[in-house]
Amino acid sequence: MKTKLKRAHNIFKITILLSGLVFLFAGFNTVKGAEDSEELFNPGEMITHHIADAHVWHLWDGAFGTIPLPVILYSDDRGIEMFSSGNFYDSHHHLVEYNGYQIEHGHIVPLDSGRQIIDFSITKNVASMFISVFLMFWIFLSVKRGYVRNVGKAPTGIQSFFEPIIIFIRDEVAKPNIGPKYEKFLPYLLSIFFFIWFNNMMGLLPGAANVTGNIAITATLAVFTFLITQFSGNKNYWKHIFNTPGVPWWLKVPLPIMPVVELIGVFTKPFSLMIRLFANITAGHIIILSLFSLIFIFQSIMVGPLSVAFAIFMNFLELFVALLQAFIFTILSAMYFGTAVEDHHEEAEVS
């Protein structure tokens, strides 16, 4: 046990050192070229560029620092078109027109205003989600193989790391909040927890995509929770919404205040899930990038080390936030499922 603790402590120290060096490099690379450019450094433009989705994956400046991604478009007159997003950039990485299309504010638009297109392109966020999904498949298939090999034995390797987390979600999130019917919701809760956590963590890497800081993605996750909640709702759930027990009759029939309030709550719950995850992750990225921007705004030898130190501190704080936000989204989803499948309890109505 002492050997394992010492090894874990050494790994933690090495991680801190490497993270500091990586984010020191990332900070200077993020705003590289600002001091060489004749134009005034614009921190807002730089931050927006790094937290927004894009049709290319920009890692660093240089000939091989940008990865073009597939563009897939559909229009009635041309059908399906597929080509590389690299065609929209010249050798100096300036935007150009290609095949009757151009990129405006991160979106592909046709030069012919009368043409309507549907964009199915693999953007940076989509590519990052594919990576996270493949990573989850690889990890949990490895965990599954560990269970097959170690039947009746203590878990080892990657299985020993993830098993306590899985058991925690089952025993401390699903069971207490959902009750006896927790098993049918457990696969979704585990999937949503690890998907959010993995993408939160990947988003902290230099040059990574801001997946969970994209409101379209957090909205989709919230919609999944909303649909599962509504389709799982039993008679008692809908009775609580439209005929709330313990409420005076005149607040339900002549003045349907309570049914309206409860019905609004049905939609505000997933809305809060969407906004909470989006706002917390995006805010963390903005703060870290803003701290790095101070180096080139003040151009002072005193500000540089302080900015990097605070950015590294914020990055480690974001490691905690990444886990916390995944946990909050999961436990709130479990609570909503619990209210939907809760068994009927007799309550005296105030009449």
Topology:
Blueprint: H1 2-30, H2 43-51, E1 56-58, E2 66-68, E3 70-75, E4 79-84, E5 101-104, E6 107-110, E7 117-119, H3 124-149, H4 158-178, H5 186-202, H6 215-232, H7 235-242, H8 257-298, H9 303-341
Antiparallel strand pairs: 1-2, 3-4, 3-7, 5-6
Helix pairs in contact: 1-9, 2-8, 3-4, 3-5, 4-9, 5-9, 6-8, 6-9, 8-9
Structural notes for this entry:
- By secondary structure, this protein is mostly helical.
- It folds into 2 domains: 63-122; 125-341, no CATH class.
- Helices cover 60% and strands 8% of the residues.
- It is built from 9 helices and 7 strands.
- The strands form 3 sheets. Strands 4-3-7 form a 3-stranded antiparallel β-sheet, with no helix packed on it.
- It is globular, with a radius of gyration of 25 Å.
- The protein starts with a helix and ends in a 10-residue tail after the last helix.
- The model is unreliable at 15-38 and 346-351 (pLDDT under 50).
Major sheet details: 3 strands, antiparallel
Structural class: mainly alpha
Measured on Cα atoms, how large is the radius of gyration? 25 Å
Mean pLDDT: 83
Percent in helix: 55-70%
Order of helices and strands: HHEEEEEEEHHHHHHH
The count of strands amounts to 7
The tally of structural domains comes to 2
Work out the helix count. Answer: 9
List segments where confidence is low: pLDDT < 50 over at least 5 consecutive residues: 15-38, 346-351
Distance between the termini: 63 Å
Task: State the strand order across the main sheet.
Answer: 4-3-7
- Backbone shape: globular
Beta content comes to 5-15%
